[in-house]
Amino acid sequence: MNFEKTIILCRPETSANIGAVCRVMANTGFSDLRITGTKEDYDETEVLKLALHASHVWKKARFYPPTIEGLKEAASDCSVLIGTSRRTGHKRKDLGMSPEDLCLDLKKFYGGRLGLVFGNERTGLIDEELNICSFSVNIPAEEDFGSYNLSHAVLILCYSLYIAEKNNPLTEKDNPSIEKNIYLQKASMKMIQENSEQICNYLSGLGLFKKGGKKTNETFFIELLSSAGASEFDIMHLTEIFKKLFFMYSC
């Protein structure tokens, strides 16, 4: 496998659901669980009852503040963030793909970390959480009963990726040496966010945002670069181009 996989649960409410998620993850080869929430708020006995033999996933789970900044911190080393949502619309990333679409070309994730982000049982992902994601996945369901249980949604996506990897094993040609190679290593969300902000700072210095729009364009660059699977080299090279433009035309 040439990419890492992470499950991020945003503000989960039910300890039993967390336990069921742990078991699903172990079933499908996932092990990295991150939660925006306070560990002490969950009943460990209830978690372990549902996790059964997947207690190791819970024991190694990492916790972050249940805020937007907490989600950003949890996802900082992910190169692609995929949010799950049953709703569509401009603010809901209305070009959401299906689980099958997600698995069509796994090579685009090579050299990085894929983060799957799930909202809590009642609200799902709020707009601000989904806006951090590269794009969204919509799991098909009946129109009048379209919301899946949290652990079921995790199962569907984990299983889809698990089967896709099993059915499309890597060949030597597909498996280049990626570690510490900036031309192949996917940029992390932290790197993408920082450089998107820097690019917009350069554009702002050229007078492009006198009437506003800087934050909107930062979000645009974040979504563009993360969904494109940009490498560390791509990000550094692009930022350098905007830096040169800034110094050429701001003098």
UniProtKB/TrEMBL annotation:
The keyword Methyltransferase applies. One of its GO terms (biological process) is tRNA nucleoside ribose methylation. InterPro entries: Alpha/beta_knot_MTases (IPR029028), RNA_MeTrfase_TrmJ/LasT (IPR004384), SpoU_MeTrfase (IPR001537), tRNA_m1G_MTases_N (IPR029026). SUPFAM superfamilies: alpha/beta knot. GO terms for cellular component: cytosol. GO terms for molecular function: RNA binding; RNA methyltransferase activity. Residues 6-159 form the tRNA/rRNA methyltransferase SpoU type domain. It comes from the Bacteria. Keywords: Methyltransferase, S-adenosyl-L-methionine, Transferase. The keyword Nuclease does not apply. Belongs to the class IV-like SAM-binding methyltransferase superfamily. RNA methyltransferase TrmH family. PANTHER family: TRNA (CYTIDINE_URIDINE-2'-O-)-METHYLTRANSFERASE TRMJ, TRNA/RRNA METHYLTRANSFERASE. This is RNA methyltransferase, TrmH family.
